[in-house]
Design brief:
Length: 173
């Protein structure tokens, strides 16, 4: 057995008799869409899927981009890549941004009809001149050619952005 895999979890398991709000992440919503049975086994029985390979390079790219955009955020200047691409935005400065980026806290909203706390850890937010917010998520790829979101498997990325947008709207943005 791998040191990275603990198949029998005892925390964050759904108890139908509990009145406490249940936390569910954006990635667990995606798991439900992909495989409702896998979701049930994970969230009700506490048996998670084995983890995938760690994407060390992706994590490094993510961390470096956040640090770089944070430099421009502190000065409230647009990033040179945004200028080059004609994207008229600056990194959004908000006191809770680091909390919203945290995988164990994230951006949260209590959806009372189902008593769920929906969470998602976003990478970044940019703001346009008209105060429109843009959610940014950094992805590293080794794909040759033009990068797009047109492949069927990339619907996951689109849903990820939709959930982050929904969370921000529910929080008054």
């Amino acid at each position: 057995m791998s040191i990275y895999y603990n198949p029998q979890r005892t925390r964050n398991i759904f108890d139908p008799n509990s009145r406490a709000a249940f936390r569910i992440s954006r990635s667990k919503i995606e798991l439900f869409i992909e495989c409702p049975c896998c979701f049930y086994v994970d969230k009700r029985l506490g048996i998670a899927r084995p983890p995938s390979y760690p994407f060390t390079l992706n994590s490094a790219v993510d961390a470096l981009l956040k640090k770089e955009f944070d430099l421009y955020r502190s000065a409230q200047n647009p990033h040179p890549l945004c200028i080059k691409q004609g994207i008229d935005v600056v990194p959004f400065a908000h006191p809770d941004l680091n909390e919203w980026r945290d995988n164990f806290k994230g951006l949260q909203f209590h959806y009372e009809p189902l008593n769920l706390i929906i969470t998602g850890a976003l990478d970044d937010i940019w703001v346009g001149r008209n105060t429109t917010l843009f959610v940014a998520d950094y992805k590293a790829t080794a794909k040759d050619g033009q990068v797009s979101l047109d492949e069927p498997w990339q619907i996951v990325y689109k849903r990820q952005m939709e959930i982050y947008q929904w969370l921000l709207r529910k929080r008054g943005f």
